[in-house]
Write a structure and sequence with these properties.
The chain is built from eleven helices and no strands. By secondary structure, the chain is mainly alpha-helical.
Length: 248
């Protein structure tokens, strides 16, 4: 056989093994680097059943985040607003707008005449008889099931919605603005003073310590840290850095 194949053929298997190993390593490295929330989630913007304009409601009207997401400072989970929250305003404002049809369907359910009674005349005031389908909102922000995140703990220590969700008050359609990856969370846990602000400013999405900046000989970014350090020391904010802080 040595008369048929040249000697260099003996090195082909080794070269193939090395090449496959290098290709496999490159694929694993690429997946490890790019298959993360920073690249797979940031920018995610699903189409919602109701085109709710956050820029108008939270930005121009100045609607407090807690009006719709009322459990964000009381519960570990932020609630999705139900139809009755929307209709508390839209019973009188654009009550017949076709854009709000999914909201009205969820609110009135089988109450065809919208008078609190079913077609057979049975009263349905709060007794659950009236079948009210939920508004099929599409979830945008979601941490993995193995991650423990408590909204109330963060909000009640001066962490604004902006830190995780971005400038919601400037978004017509909400999209996934921050990566919410493990590295993203650890950066904040290592230096919480950069994210802390006075409790009265937590839902003020445009707050940037401008008043402090005008009274200090540095820029507003340094003023943010200055205010955050005061809050960190006053409240003894010491976020966990071990795995058990989030993986329970």
């Amino acid at each position: 056989m040595r008369n048929i194949f040249p000697r260099w053929v003996n090195t082909v298997p080794i070269k193939l093994i090395i090449a496959l190993g290098m290709i496999g390593g490159a694929v694993v490295a690429g997946i490890t680097y790019y298959a993360t929330p920073k690249y797979t989630r940031v920018g995610y913007q699903p189409t919602q059943p109701v085109s709710y304009n956050h820029e108008f409601h939270a930005g121009q009207l100045g609607l407090d985040c807690r009006y719709c997401h009322h459990s964000v400072d009381k519960s570990s989970h932020a609630n999705i607003p139900s139809a009755n929250v929307c209709m508390s305003c839209h019973k009188n404002v654009k009550a017949d707008s076709p854009l709000l049809e999914p909201v009205r369907t969820s609110y009135f359910g089988e109450d065809i005449n919208k008078d609190g009674k079913l077609s057979d005349g049975e009263d349905v005031n709060g007794d659950g008889i009236n079948n009210r389908p939920s508004i099929p909102w599409v979830r945008i922000h979601k941490a993995p099931d193995y991650v423990y995140f408590n909204h109330a703990i963060h909000v009640n220590r001066g962490v604004s919605c902006v830190e995780c969700h971005g400038r919601i008050d400037q978004m017509e359609e909400v999209y996934h603005s921050k990566s919410l990856s493990m590295g993203f969370c650890l950066e904040c846990h290592r230096e919480p003073e950069k994210a802390l602000r006075p409790m009265g400013e937590v839902t003020n999405l445009s707050w940037a310590a401008d008043i402090l900046a005008s009274s200090l000989p540095n820029d507003s970014a340094h003023a943010d840290v200055h205010a955050g350090l005061d809050i960190k020391q006053k409240w003894g904010v010491n976020p966990p850095l071990s795995c058990t802080g989030c993986h329970r």
